[in-house]
């Protein structure tokens, strides 16, 4: 059972880390080393969280065996008088173990020697990743060099400067500690000091993130029970994202102008042409085509004299600009869908049919979800059950947050035991209820990890670090998140062991240490950290929770110009109104595009015109309705070479894919498109006969063999007369319908 439980946990945690990496990263396009490093760092951190409860239950069982084998009831009472500082919690455990004759073996017991090796491999691998490998790969992935050697050189220089400063500070502090405490530094003591320094850095950041997550997660679930709040928040995000989207597009256009200048300056016989071609491959396709046409038409020389270092910097700018533009486009589309859905839910709350009425016919759900999550089920969830579920979950999470804050402020008290988690574990331990022990440990540490990790996923350092779902996170942010996880998880686990009084370095109890604590070494080597920082600094979480309740951080960011959603703020109201107008405009554009597409489909089905979507007549101006983008781009189809006459004539048979038109649409051939949407396609049949005659003159009776002066045979004349009569009748019918509607 032990091997099965451990194997199941290892496999489940691996697929959990792989799923998260799939959601945030692009498994097909990003570099394999980047994905491997990120997956390994996430996997090891999640594995620590899931295995630690098994370590706690195994340690409690070993403590029972140790006490029953080496103590008698009389000796245990004498030991309590000889060691008055052992604490009430340990005396209670001693009385319990002395009264028990047989120790019940836990269902998830792990044999001796397995966990120490496991923790040592996991811990030192994660530390190697966070301090050496991931920073190097981070600089390597962000480098704009054009060769592997150049990227390695750039990464080594950046990390040498950054971590050289850290190493110098660490050496100075190490000398001060050795002289002040009069220590003889051995390899074990150096290892313990290094672990203490890493855990101190991680605990400093951990408390900041934990104080935010303990309040924000329950509050977010409580507020999400209100559809009006979610809709206002969506409007706010739309207004902010519209500004970011415009800035990203402008930045991309500026960078592409620089690339165009370099592309025209460096000809194909230049030594740096390979570097320019590499940069061009990173540009969007439409810019590549435009630059190719400009190079063919450009015949003047530019004064620019680019260098390789300049091309490296330009390469970095291109990668960053393209990635940021892609992120904003995907975020914009998803945010619009979310806002449309919330508006549909708000309109359907009072619906007597109890069905969510969709404003758009597009449906991106899979067939399984469409079958289970029907419109009726969706209405009951969105309008009836979701509000109650979110509020109950918010209350439950709030109770857990209160328990964590109370335990963080009182876990140093061993007599009496004030930490709630220590009380729960002690009560379950008295009845050999190892499943309850593991469940309490797992739920509490999982909640703390969610509070910390969710903050890591939410925070954003300008454009340098930002985890974006739907495969839009860049390599730099993925590896930075892996570094944060590896630095936050070990101090989080140590802090949790202190909350349940399983860390003797903090609780000062004479008991067997967990296998995880044993690899950390004795923190008593540095009493300033073990008796001071580790005990009193976590109390700061109470002040951080109070600051988060009153949104002091968000208000400070608002003063600095980084606007956050605050209900009693004028800027928030203005952005909500702006977002509402943007949503209305995008809804009208989508509805207009959808109506035009439906009219085209109905017309083709009615008159049997077979046309290919997305293509138009040669030389005509097209309006392509792109459902993925909120903007409609006007594109002009370019006529091919004169020798390719058959291809051009074939394209004349294809219908124009859009009914929406602009004023003064005039083609290069001198023909005007109709401005009346009700008469669109009225001359398609005439056009069909003309094109059919141009392509196959013999199909209509061999009219003049393509010559202008030829006479029309009777069959051709009859066909044209019949066509004119049919068109006249159709025009009369459509005009009559318009008069009736008016």
From TrEMBL:
**Region Disordered: which residues?**
616-663
Q: Which residues are listed as membrane-spanning?
A: 6-24, 33-52, 121-140, 160-181, 193-215, 389-406, 435-456, 535-553, 715-733
Bias-annotated ranges (Polar residues): 650-663
Subcellular location per the Swiss-Prot or TrEMBL entry: Membrane
Listed A to Z, the keywords are: Coiled coil, Membrane, Signal-anchor, Transmembrane, Transmembrane helix
Q: Which residues form a coiled coil?
A: 238-265
Membrane topology, from the record: Multi-pass membrane protein; Single-pass type II membrane protein
**Which is an annotated Pfam family here?**
LMBR1
InterPro entries named among the record's database cross-references: GOLM1/CASC4, GPCR-associated_LMBR1, LMBR1-like_membr_prot
Lineage, top-rank taxon, reads Eukaryota
Q: Which PANTHER family match?
A: G-PROTEIN COUPLED RECEPTOR-ASSOCIATED PROTEIN LMBRD2 (PTHR21355)
Family the UniProt entry places it in: Belongs to the GOLM family.
Q: What is this protein called?
A: LMBR1 domain-containing protein 2-B
Biological source species: Ameca splendens
């Amino acid at each position: 059972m032990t091997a099965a439980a451990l194997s199941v946990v290892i496999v489940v945690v691996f697929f959990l880390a792989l799923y998260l990496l799939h959601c945030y990263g692009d498994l097909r396009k990003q570099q394999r080393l980047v994905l491997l490093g990120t997956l390994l760092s996430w996997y090891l951190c999640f594995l620590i969280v899931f295995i630690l409860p098994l370590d706690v239950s195994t340690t409690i069982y070993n403590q029972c065996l140790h006490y029953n084998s080496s103590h008698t009831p009389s000796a245990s009472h004498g030991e309590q008088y000889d060691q008055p500082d052992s604490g009430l919690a340990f005396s209670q455990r001693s009385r319990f173990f002395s009264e028990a004759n047989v120790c019940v073996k836990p269902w998830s017991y792990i044999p001796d020697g397995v966990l120490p090796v496991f923790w040592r491999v996991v811990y030192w691998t994660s530390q190697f990743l966070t301090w050496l490998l991931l920073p190097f790969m981070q600089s390597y992935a962000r480098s704009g060099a054009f060769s592997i050697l150049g990227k390695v050189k750039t990464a080594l220089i950046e990390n040498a400067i950054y971590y050289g400063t850290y190493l110098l500070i660490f050496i100075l502090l190490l000398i001060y500690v050795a002289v002040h405490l009069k220590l003889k530094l051995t390899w074990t003591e150096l290892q313990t000091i290094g672990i203490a320094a890493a855990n101190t850095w991680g605990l400093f950041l951990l408390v900041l993130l934990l104080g935010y997550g303990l309040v924000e997660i329950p509050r977010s679930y409580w507020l999400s029970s209100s559809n009006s709040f979610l809709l206002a928040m969506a409007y706010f995000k739309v207004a902010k994202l519209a500004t970011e989207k415009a800035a990203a597009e402008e930045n991309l256009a500026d960078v592409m102008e620089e690339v165009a200048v370099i592309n025209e300056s460096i000809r194909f016989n230049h030594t740096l042409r390979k570097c320019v071609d590499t940069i061009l491959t990173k540009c969007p396709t439409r810019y590549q085509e435009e630059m190719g046409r400009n190079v063919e038409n450009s015949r003047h020389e530019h004064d620019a004299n680019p260098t390789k270092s300049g091309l490296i910097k330009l390469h970095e700018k291109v990668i960053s600009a393209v990635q940021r533009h892609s992120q904003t486009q995907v975020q914009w589309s998803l945010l619009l869908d979310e806002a449309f859905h919330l508006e549909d839910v708000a309109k359907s709350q009072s619906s007597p049919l109890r069905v969510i009425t969709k404003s758009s016919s597009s449906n991106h759900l899979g067939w399984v979800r469409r079958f289970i999550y029907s419109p009726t089920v969706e209405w009951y969830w969105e309008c009836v059950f979701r509000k109650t579920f979110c509020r109950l979950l918010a209350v439950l999470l709030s109770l857990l947050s209160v328990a964590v804050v109370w335990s963080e402020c009182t876990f140093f008290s061993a007599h009496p035991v004030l930490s709630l988690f220590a009380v729960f574990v002690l009560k379950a331990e008295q009845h050999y209820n190892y499943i309850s022990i593991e469940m309490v440990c797992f739920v509490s540490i999982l909640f703390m990890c969610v509070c910390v990790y969710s903050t890591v996923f939410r925070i954003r350092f300008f454009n340098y670090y930002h985890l974006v779902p739907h495969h839009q996170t860049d390599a730099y942010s993925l590896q930075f998140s892996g570094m944060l996880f590896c630095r936050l998880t070990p101090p989080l686990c140590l802090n949790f062991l202190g909350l349940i009084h399983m860390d003797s370095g903090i609780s000062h109890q004479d008991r067997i240490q967990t296998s995880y604590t044993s690899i950390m070494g004795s923190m008593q080597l540095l009493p300033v950290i073990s008796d001071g920082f580790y005990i009193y600094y976590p109390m700061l979480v109470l002040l951080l929770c109070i600051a988060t309740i009153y949104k002091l951080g968000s208000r400070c960011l608002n003063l600095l110009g980084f606007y956050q959603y605050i209900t009693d703020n004028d800027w928030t109201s203005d952005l909500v109104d702006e977002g509402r107008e943007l949503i209305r405009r995008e809804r009208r554009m989508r509805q207009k595009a959808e109506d035009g597409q439906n009219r085209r489909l109905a017309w083709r089905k009615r008159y049997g015109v077979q046309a290919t979507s997305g293509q138009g007549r040669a030389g005509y101006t097209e309006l392509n309705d792109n459902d993925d983008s909120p903007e409609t781009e006007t594109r002009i189809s370019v006529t091919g070479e004169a020798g390719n006459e058959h291809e051009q004539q074939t394209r004349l048979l294809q219908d124009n894919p859009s009914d929406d038109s602009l004023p003064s649409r005039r083609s290069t051939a001198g023909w005007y498109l109709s401005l009346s949407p009700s008469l669109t396609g009225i001359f398609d049949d005439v056009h069909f006969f003309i094109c059919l005659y141009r392509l196959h003159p013999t199909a209509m009776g061999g009219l003049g063999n393509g010559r202008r002066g030829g006479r029309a045979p009777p069959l051709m004349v009859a066909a044209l007369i019949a066509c004119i009569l049919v068109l006249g009748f159709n025009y009369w019918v459509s005009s009559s319908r318009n008069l009736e509607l008016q």
